[in-house]
Amino acid sequence: MPVVSDVDRRVAASLRRTGLAHNNSTLVVGVSGGADSSALLYSLNHIRQSCGIILHVAHLNHDFRGEEADEDARFVEAMAQTLGLPVTVEKRDPIAYQKEQGISSFEQGAREMRYEFMATVAQRIGATAVAVGHTSDDLAETVLLHILRGAALPGMRGMTEIAPWPWPTGLASPLLFRPLLEVTKAETVEYCRELDREYRQDSGNYLFRFTRNRVRRELMPLLAAEYNPRVQDALVRLAQTSSLELDYLEKELERLWPAIHVSPPQDNGKGVQGARVTLSREALRDLHPALRPMALRRAYIAVNGDPRRLRESHLRAMSDLVSGQKPRASLDLPRNTIFQMTPTETSLGPDAIQGQTPFPDLNSFHELTTSEAPGSRQVCNAGNWNVTLEVIPSGTLANLAPPDAFTAYLEPKALGSSLAVRTRHDGDRFQPLGMARGKKLKDFFIDAKVPVQWRNNIPLVVSERGIAWVVGYRIAEWAKVPDGLAPEGNILRVSFDRAD
Predict the structure, then answer these.
(1) Which parts of 215-357 fold into alpha helices (H)?
(2) Of the N and C termini of the chain, which has fewer Cβ atoms inside 10 Å?
(3) pLDDT band, very low/low/confident/very high, at 206 (cuts 50, 70, 90)
(4) Structural domains present in the chain
(5) CA angle 422, 427, 430 (to 5 degrees)
(6) 215 and 144 in contact (C-beta within 8 Å)?
(7) 248-259 confidence digits (pLDDT tens)
(8) Model pTM score
């Protein structure tokens, strides 16, 4: 059938540009039933013989709109049957998926679930790509959302016509195909009307609790009315320009990567994810400031498989440390990833030396049983630790073995009546021995060069007054045994031994 409409011409041109035309490529078409995805399906079906493609319809029933969602599923199934196309329809619960995956955003969880479903369908039937109905409106909204969130150049690119599969990450196939990025939503609606075809209205698109809906229904119309009537075109041009510039920078980074990349990822038996990547600090420092964050982002992706949860603030912090004067530093990154820097190297990876830590998991808060009776000795269990508390006469202090990293002598009166063991909390402060004032516990850890991956496990002996002892490092100034203590006074000796 000849290509006649403007939408058909643009979809056919997209198929040719991406190499999907004229080779019997099988495409899964993700169809929600709305005007955009319906127009996409009608157009692909219209040109499938002339472009040499095979189609399979896929619809995921996001089971949170009740009967309306069920009606959407029935509509898509009937549409596919009318066109004589095979169809896969499934129902899944996005709220349950969100909870299972520990995702805070409903929108992100629903998106991941949707892509996971389409990837499964594509792999089952051997499809080359999955076609989705993202339009130029969607592209403009995505770029604007990324601007609002402070994204850098990768965020300005928004969506591309053909892209690697977004979720689950690391899939060699299918590809993600967006042939409508040069078509507006108004044009998809008009196309359906020209064909005298119906489409569904998704009430979820009007729920203002979703950020994209607020951008679509409030912010974009406001910008068009008050600032630039062609704001959508301007955002699309920004995306296109950013894509070209980013493509150049990525090629330049690829050229320089052998000099930056010190060692290949060390596979931990889980594929790419879990690898540790080491980079040359000198080579990173010599990079143009536009390329340095991209190199660090590439290393993070090599460790985790994708850049989810990595923010521009993380990239700026790492880049500033690399170019700064500190010889050593470390940062906690999302997804249990550690950035570590020495005078010559930087590395990103999981807790590679967790098995070597002298601090086993503490698990929770543990109260310690204390006594004021001289000579008393009590052993308390605190997770993977056995904590021994002994009350000894101060007159014997000179004859006792000096304290080590896991033994401390403390002043019982300074501690008060309650004592416990826990790990660090946000906002903790500590007055190290020898200091007149307290400081943030985080700053103490940095000054003491405590490895980042140890800090969440280090036991803290705490009383009503605060942290009396950072086990393994230092006691508090206020908890020390004072000079000139009367011989008849008492001292509390606290010892930590691993229970395992």
Answers:
(1) 220-226, 231-260, 281-286, 292-304, 312-323
(2) C
(3) low
(4) 6-236 (3.40.50.620), 264-352 (3.30.465.60), 366-498 (no CATH)
(5) 70
(6) yes
(7) 999 999 999 999
(8) 0.68
